[in-house]
Predict the structure.
Amino acid sequence: MRPLTSDVLVIGGGVLGQAAAYHLVREGARVTLIDRADVGQATAAGAGILSAGTTARHAGPPYDLSVRAFNYYPTLMERLASDDAGETGFARCPLLLVAREAAERREFEEARAAIFARQAGTGWPSVEDLHEITPDEARRLFPPLGEVHGAILHRAAGRVDGRLLAQALRRAGERRGLRVRHGSATRLLIERRRVAGAVVDGETLAVSSVVIAGGAWSPAFAAQLGIELPVAPQRGQIIHLRLRDRPTHDWPIISGFRGHYIVAWPEGRIVVGATRETGTGFEPTLTAGGVREVLSEALRVAPGLAPAEIVEMRVGLRPLAADGVPVLGPVPSVEGVYLATGHGPSGLQLGPFSGKVVADAVLGRAPEVDLEPFGVSRFRA
Ligand SMILES: Cc1cc2nc3c(=O)[nH]c(=O)nc-3n(C[C@H](O)[C@H](O)[C@H](O)COP(=O)(O)OP(=O)(O)OC[C@H]3O[C@@H](n4cnc5c(N)ncnc54)[C@H](O)[C@@H]3O)c2cc1C
């Protein structure tokens, strides 16, 4: 075995792995991060919507995690700035939930009832930050919109560029001593129910803790750990458009009722997405049907996007847990192994905070949230 040079090995260089590694080195741990850079990494494809107040979730631990994660962003941005980490693309911007057709009115009313009941119950966001607006107001905020049959404006939302965020976390981590290696972790070394190291590209590394943040690929370690880890790839195809000469930087994010969305960025970049395909396995390919679905839904909601230029198409595999809830925290069967995966469609929002929470658990500190509801043991009947 190679001599012990790190306390912790983080497997995976997406947002979860980079966030866990960064928070560990901030607290003085010696950390190595291994990333295989698989084609289909979710972080590199993510749309970057940050919004807790408009999800359909009822109040409860996953909703609480998402609010805390959203509220952690400004602190993280200050920390990254003080580590001179570079751009992340983070900005606060409003989100508009719109019903496009009369037929969506019933769903709109159900969502409205749930959102405002939760707002009344939890006191967050404030009424100023979350309220209904008229169709005319909606079109004024986002001019390409077509007909609107209901709109809720949510001001406490934001966006982040997943690629830039992961790079910034890495840069900030490296400034604090994080070592990053390209490679593939194939096996853990376990001695008397405790992790002792890992095999990386045939080489054995000795470490005392391992964080598995391998996205949709994380279940590769489940059999060895004797756990059930029902996390599977959910394919997402997403398209980047450009509307020339339009001041798009303050346009809201548009969220519709068919699981699709439109995210406006500065300088005319408009990102439209995304498919949510289960059962496609590890096939990060763009398909004719997927591209058609994304474009037709975007143009149905916002016909004014028709003249936009197509500049890029991306595809990523979201790590989706069977019950849709992130998997976070220690593996009970093997001491020293922690999971940070299963963040499905919300990993860019949740990832930085989840990484921090897992780092706390690795360091033996009480995490800011109870990890029990996110524990892997929930999958054993
Ligand atoms: C189209 C699309 C749109 C999205 N939009 C949003 C959004 O608007 N808001 C939001 O919050 N989230 C969004 N998401 C979800 C978000 O991107 C993911 O939840 C998040 O990026 C998952 O991060 P991760 O680090 O767990 O996994 P990944 O980003 O997939 O990273 C896992 C990494 O681990 C590496 N790895 C795996 N196994 C090994 C191994 N054995 N050894 C070494 N390396 C390994 C892989 O190569 C990969 O680089 C979107 C996702 C997609 C695809």
Notes: The two ends are 38 Å apart (CA to CA). The longest strand covers residues 309-321. Residues 61-82 form the longest helix (22 residues). The chain has a mean pLDDT of 94.
